Structures are given as structure tokens and as C-alpha cells.
Amino acid sequence: MSDRQNEQRDLIAIGRGFDTWEPPEIDTSVPHSARMYDYWLGGKTHFAPDRALGEAIEQAIPDIKTMARENRTFLGRAVRHLVREAGIRQFLDIGTGIPTGGNTHEVAQAEAPGSRVVYVDNDPIVLAHARALMVSGGQGETAYIHADLRRPEAILAHPALTGTLDLTEPVGLMLVAILMLLRDDEDPRGKVATLLDALPSGSHVVITHPTGDFDPEAMEAVAAKAAQGRMTIVPRTRAQVEEFFAGWELVEPGVAPVMAWRPDGEPPVDPHAAYYWAGVARKP
Ligand SMILES: C[S@@+](CC[C@H](N)C(=O)[O-])C[C@H]1O[C@@H](n2cnc3c(N)ncnc32)[C@H](O)[C@@H]1O
């Protein structure tokens, strides 16, 4: 795709004062992370190549579907924490995924009806579903921007973002199960740092990231199968995940196995049963 076409795509957004939606072109011949994740979560928006790669990965990690659900459950816990304990009322959720149960705006607005959420994803299939994310009750508001985490400046400057969020007030930045889709040479740490620098004191960032720390062989197999399917999955160590939070204060319990991050109810019997690190940090 040419630079000009890319620029035009970045202008696509849905929200108050924005409706530049057009039917997206969806390539169903190669697996996409959003659709493969939807398959694992038991959704309906996936095609044969998404299921084939999802199943190949399931051979390496038989509990992958449970792990995907644990990641999703954590997202809800983290949003509730941000609303209840940190007073966050506006969210920037990058790597939205195909709408499913417990989307960020639903969880936030159930706690605080006036919460505002800007969603960002670069997958046309998510754009096709974005209207489902636009339903806010009461005074709440949502917007959707079709854009790429690898161009954080374009996200931050987008009028659908600046028209929905007040960047002088604390923001909850959600980077949940997305950073593994960026290779090291795409500078994920620099992209995250650009986003963090733009947010005011009191903002929080929420990150989950798959890791090989709990079962290196299985995760190596996952990365290899993904590469065969032309998808990037880069597992990272706890130390590498902690680097994303540099300069921010990790809230208790720090970077932890996703199941062990402030579980609702009893602590998990085996917190290492889901191969994700999770953390939430506050900007001083
Ligand atoms: C595994 S899903 C995670 C969905 C959701 N955050 C969750 O954890 O339930 C990853 C999402 O990130 C999106 N994504 C991947 N690379 C991206 C990029 N460079 N910029 C924006 N979104 C991206 C995919 O399209 C997909 O919807």
C-alpha cells in the first residue's frame, strides 16, 4: 500500500463529529491476530487460515484458549481497578480486538457512566465491527480510530482522539496483548514511550504480554508456527516487559503472571498456568 493510501486510512474514524467509515478490504487468505484471538475466545469472526493457525498453536499450548480468556478477564479487572482505585474516567485502548464480552467501555461505563474511550486498531475486520463499540449509555462516549501502534504520533494527534479525550487529565492506556505483535526492530519500547510521554501525571498504563518464561519450548514453538503463518509473535521475558513501564510506578503486585494480578476471589492454584505477564503502572 502506498504512503498516500496509508495516510488516507489513518483518517478513518468513527465518533462524535466523525464518520469517515467506508467498507474495509478484508484479506481472509492469511491469518490475522484479531480473528485468531476471536477464535480462541469462542467468537464467530474468523476464517479458515485464522482457525488453522489457532489450532496449530493450540498443539504447542493445549490450554491456549483458557489463557486467552485469562488475558481478557484481566482486562476487565484492570479497567475496574483504574476506575475504582485510580479515578480514571478516560481510556485509550490500542489493539481493541473484535468486540466481545467485557469491552473496555462497557466495563468502565458500568462503574462510571460518563467514562470516555478511544479505541484504536489497525485490522480492517475490527473497523468493520467498530460500530458495536460506539454504543455508550448515559453521558459516556466512545470513538474508534483505524490506525497503527507503530505510528503513535498519528494516534495522539488524531482529531477523534483529541475531540474525545482531554489529554490534560489522567488517561488509562490499554496495551493488552498487542506488544508481542511488534518485532524488536519495529521499536515497540520507543512506540510505547512516545505514548507514555504524551500523557499527564496520574495516568495509568495496562500491559499484558505473552512470555516464554513459564514454558520456553512451547512458546518457541508458538513463535515458529506464527512465523510460518506470516504472523509475528514475539514472547518477552519479565525483565523485557518491565522495561515498557520505565519511569512509571508499578502498582502492586508489579509485573505478575496474568492470573495472579489482583485476582477476584481466591488466588489461582497455579498462577503460571497462563503464559502472560501483566502489569499496571502510574505516571508520577
Ligand atoms: C490479541 S488481540 C487483543 C485484543 C484485546 N486488547 C484483548 O486483549 O482482549 C490484538 C489486537 O491488536 C491489533 N493490532 C495488531 N497490531 C497492531 C498495530 N500495529 N496497531 C494497532 N493494532 C494492532 C490486532 O488487530 C488485534 O485486534
Counted beta strands: 10
Structural class: alpha/beta
Overall pLDDT, averaged? 92
Write down the domain tally.
Answer: 1
Q: What is the CA-based Rg, rounded?
A: 18 Å
Q: Any guess at the CATH architecture?
A: 3-Layer(aba) Sandwich
The largest sheet, given as strand count, sense and whether it forms a barrel, is:
10 strands, mixed
Distance between the termini: 40 Å
Fourth CATH level, the homologous superfamily: Vaccinia Virus protein VP39
CATH class: Alpha Beta
Helix share, percent: 25-40%
Please tally the helical runs, counting DSSP H or I stretches of 4 or more residues.
11
User: Which term fits the overall shape?
Assistant: globular
**Strand content of the residues, in percent?**
15-25%
What does it look like?
This protein is α/β, with parallel strands linked by helices and 284 residues long. It has a single domain, classed as Vaccinia Virus protein VP39 (Rossmann fold, 3-Layer(aba) Sandwich), CATH 3.40.50.150. 37% of the residues lie in helices and 16% in strands. Strands 1, 2, 3, 4, 5, 6, 7, 8, 9 and 10 form a ten-stranded mixed sheet that branches. Strand 1 and strand 2 form a beta hairpin. Helix 2 (33-40) packs across helix 3 (48-60), helix 3 (48-60) runs antiparallel to helix 10 and helix 4 packs parallel to helix 5. The chain binds S-adenosylmethionine. S-adenosylmethionine binds at residues 33-34, 37, 71-72, 75, 94-97, 120-123, 126, 148-150, 176-178, 181.
List the main descriptive attributes of the protein structure presented here.
disordered N terminus, Rossmann fold, binds S-adenosylmethionine, ten-stranded mixed beta sheet, alpha/beta, globular, 284 residues
